[in-house]
Amino acid sequence: MAAYVVLEQDGRILLTHWYATDDAQGWTMPGGGIDPGEHPADAAVRELKEETGYDVEVGDVLGVGSIVIPGEKRLAPESRGIPMQGIRIVYSGRIVGGEMAVEQDGSTDDVAWFPLDDVANLHRVDLVDEALVFAGLRPA
């Protein structure tokens, strides 16, 4: 289970670049895994700080999505061949402090603001489109 935040300002959206291998990478929503016992909103705040440098306040749940990753697409050697069901909670949010910074030694290697009109041209994961629909920033 994972929690993500849609941060939109002045017609731009904040995205992080996820990188595992040259074949497994792309722009995604900031956020990530929920630790055992952690509230999803708290996980979103923590992940945003780690990945973007920003302090955020989460708002409403915009939507909940589900994904199945086929076993052959799993990246960790110990997980290959085992499909995984993922649940993604997407929140609205706003920046309340901090400065934009790229995560060090994590799963993301870049963070950037993109005009909403440019998102369709980015190499991105499906979560970006799903989150923009949840936020009413793209038609379903």
- Report the CATH architecture: Alpha-Beta Complex
Largest sheet: 4 strands, mixed
**Can you give the mean pLDDT?**
93
Give the % helix.
Answer: 10-25%
For the secondary structure, the number of strands is 8
> Which strand-content bin applies to the residues?
over 45%
* CATH class division: Alpha Beta
Rg, rounded, reads: 14 Å
What is the domain tally?
1
Q: Would you list the SSEs in sequence order as H and E?
A: EEEEEHEEEH
The number of distinct helices, counting runs of at least 4 residues, comes to 2
Q: Using the coordinates shown, work out and report the CATH topology.
A: Nucleoside Triphosphate Pyrophosphohydrolase
User: Any low-confidence stretches, pLDDT <50, length ≥5?
Assistant: none
Supply the helix-strand structural class: alpha+beta
Description of the molecule:
The protein has one domain (2-134): Nucleoside Triphosphate Pyrophosphohydrolase (Alpha-Beta Complex), CATH 3.90.79. The mean pLDDT is 93. It is built from 2 helices and 8 strands. It has a 4-stranded mixed β-sheet with strand order 5-1-7-6, with helices on both faces. Strands 2, 3, 4 and 8 form a 4-stranded antiparallel β-sheet that branches. With 140 residues, the chain is an alpha+beta fold. It is globular and about 45 Å long. Strand 2 and strand 3 (12-21) form a beta hairpin. The chain has helices at 40-52, 126-134, and strands at residues 2-6, 8-9, 12-21, 24-28, 31-33, 54-69, 84-98, 108-115.
